[in-house]
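step 4 of 6: structure.
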Amino acid sequence: MGQQLKQPFLERRLFTERVIIAVIIVMIAFLLLLSRYFYLQVISHQDYQIQADQNRIKYSRINPTRGLIYDRNGVLLADNITAYRLNIIQEKTRNLEQNLIDIQSTIQFSAEEIADIKEKLKFNPVFKPLTIKEKLTESEVAMFAVKRHRMAGFEIEPYLIRKYIYPNELSHLIGYVGKISPKEFKAQDVNVYSANDYFGKTGLEKYHENDLHGYPGQLVTEINAQGKQLSQKVKKPPVNGNNLELTIDIALQQSSYQAFGEETGSAITVDIATGEVLAMVSKPGYDTNDFINGISHLKFKALAESADKPLFDRSLKGGYEPGSTIKPYIALAGLYHDIIDKDDTMFSSGVYQIPNQERKYHDWKQGGHGKVDVIDSLTESVNVFFYDLAYRLGIDKIHDFLKPFKFGQLTGIDTAGEKQGILPSREWKEKNRDMIWFPGETVITGIGQGYFVLTPVQMAQALSILASKGRVAAIHLIKNDITVSQLPMNISDSDWNTVHQGMTNVINAPNGTARAIKSDQYLIAGKSGTSQVYGKSEEDIYKKVEELPKHLRNHALFIAFAPADDPQIAVVVVAEHGASGTKAAAPIAKKIIDAYMSQADE
Amino acid sequence: MNKRLFTYMPDPILLFLIGLLLAYGLVVLYSAGGMVLVERQAVRIALGLIGLYLITQIRPERFEQFTPLIFVGSIILLVAVLLIGVKVKGAQRWLDLGITIQPSELCKITLPMMVAWIFRHASLPPSWKHIFAALIVIGLCTGLIYKQPDLGTSILIATSGLFVIYFAGISWKLIGGATLLGLLSTPVIWHFMHEYQKQRVLMFLNPEADPLNYGWNIIQSKIAIGSGGFWGKGWTQGTQTQLDFLPEHSTDFILSVMSEEFGFFGVLMLFTLYLSIILRCLFIAQQAKNTYNRLLCGALTLIFFVYIIINAGMISGVLPVVGVPLPLVSYGGTSVLTLLASFGIITAVHSHKKLIQQ
């Protein structure tokens, strides 16, 4: 092979040169490689650390327990009870198809539900439980327990669900929760709410949602590459929702509800000293428990289409004319503005006419009441006296006087859904009717008719101010939330006493319109009223009440406080289509006051 | 006889460095695969070290003498693989002769031996005739391995032969020309590549495109390396490794485990050890007494280096995924035995040279 002469020295030098070049290349290669590791491990370390954590650590929520709701005496009104739901954890199932058929003998599923479950399973991570049925019955849970060993991957999970203990009596007041809607969810902080949460839909549940809900805790689960759970620890415990303690006395609430019998309407009882609402019912109520996990279409349709409108909250949203229940306030305005004096009298002939005008305004009593002063006029509810007084006061003074009583204003009661109503004024009419105010409208304002739209809760606020002689204790539903102020007008004690006397006479004088509810144990002061229901035809107007269909009969109103000499509670009753305040509403008020007084005696 | 055996001690410096590396590897292997793997690997290492010691006793002239025979033997084995080999995952690489062997691993030593043998008496730089003969030998061996098919190994084997030609002193013009030719023929090679090989190259170019399949390994490996930081997460504390996010963490991806648990510092230590071993081996090669010994030691050293670069580059996402273990660290018998055998040849060259000088 080697014909050429070998030159060992030169060959060694050549080899040494090649070794040196090789060493240089090796060094450069190691440096380049090292710089790559430096880039990954030092420069980009943070990014990769995050990715490594994301790989193995999964955070999940621990749901907070929703706050409970109690009445003023600590009686539980809204509870959380354990319910059970059925979940599937796909990776644990062995024979899913067959199990889904077998489960039918214990827990019913429609064909669509099964198809829906299969669809959802496709997109659900195999290790994540998928809820396939909520609110299992006790027998379903028991029957499943027998079969569970054959149903790998099917698991029953307990969870908390709202339970309303007095659903009908408190349906509007407490309201209800339901599954949070996508729209509601969007408006909430995603760190606090999950798409599976319950959310207050109406009433106090809605108004105090954020307070009742609480803050979720965090559970940290370490998983491996196969998604298997390795360890679990509570990183942050949940902060449960705050409990609510209401001003409501559930016994009085129940009495108020029952006092209506078959009638529909609203009744509110306020503690005069504090502004605490002791009872507030809207009749009829409905079973709020039906709404928690979605009410069935049929049930909802029946409620929504019922002529009695059970879903409608009359106390906060119902708009009524005050009728004659406005008269004590008009009388007070007259006395305050010195339009009348306690002893001034007038002759009631049964008809009133504005000077130089033709139109006649009638009294409810044909032939009138004869010679009457302000107390007589309240006692017998003399329309003509108040037509004249209102006309002489003028609409501006009436409006300005009534406004601080919260008529036609939001009372600011601490719950959701209050409506404002209308306190008529020159300004209001020009703005909303685009017409000037006519003097005739002032006249009927004096007996609580015309443009008035007042809610029962406004009437209750005004009445408690009237009963406490100008002390404004803001009406409210959550205990220990008392705010007190004074009316801006400085009304003299004798003026208050005059009006109180008139209202006491309504029940206690022999000629009082509501003498039928007189009590021999204590003095009740009050005033009845009739709220006109419109929509009657010409001929209907002349029919007797009994001949009218129920829905066209006027609403009956009664406002009362007791005891008259030392007022403790103010009661407002609206009996819808009750026709006459004294006949329909006063007895309901009496029952409520009796219930309160007998409780107080105990 | 006994006395003579002790006469040929392997180079203590090299032996010390290799020992450190092997120990370091076992520590990482414990974290990656537990005590069972460590025990099995320790047995192989012990066998390998005994082999190294025994090979050290052989005079290099004997290697030279038997080279053609050994080479023909390995070619026969390669042919046998193609005819009666065991098929695993679509590739026929193993021979079942009581124990399973992978003849292509043998070629990592026998091919450089053969090429060095061709140049043993040639005057250097080599003539065309010698280069041509060397290329035929390389082509034959590489072609048989490529047929298995095993592209990665065939390229590595070819490289080991080419390193011998490099050390023989082939002119830089020829090296440049060959490199250019190689680059130009890339499309042709691409055309002849198998689908899975193409996939690997494509995945290397864009691992994020297919995160749950081929690219998954590289992404998880980069996360493991990067999340290790400078000092690492601590021994057996690597979440990527311990929670199985990192694939094949005791074999091809063991450097990812080391990077995760011992950080950049651990990698720096490893590279320092490797570099020291390579420098010591190149020094031994340079000191060798004849062409055959020089060329063989140089080529065996550089192929060791190439393994490191390919593995470390692959797991950090700068080179395509080729199933190459990390030399002397990855779990696996064939690799550690072959490598310790080739170090045995290097220590043999060193020990016998000293004795003659005396």
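step 5 of 6: annotate
 - Chain A has a mean pLDDT of 89.
 - The radius of gyration of chain A is 37 Å.
step 6 of 6: archive
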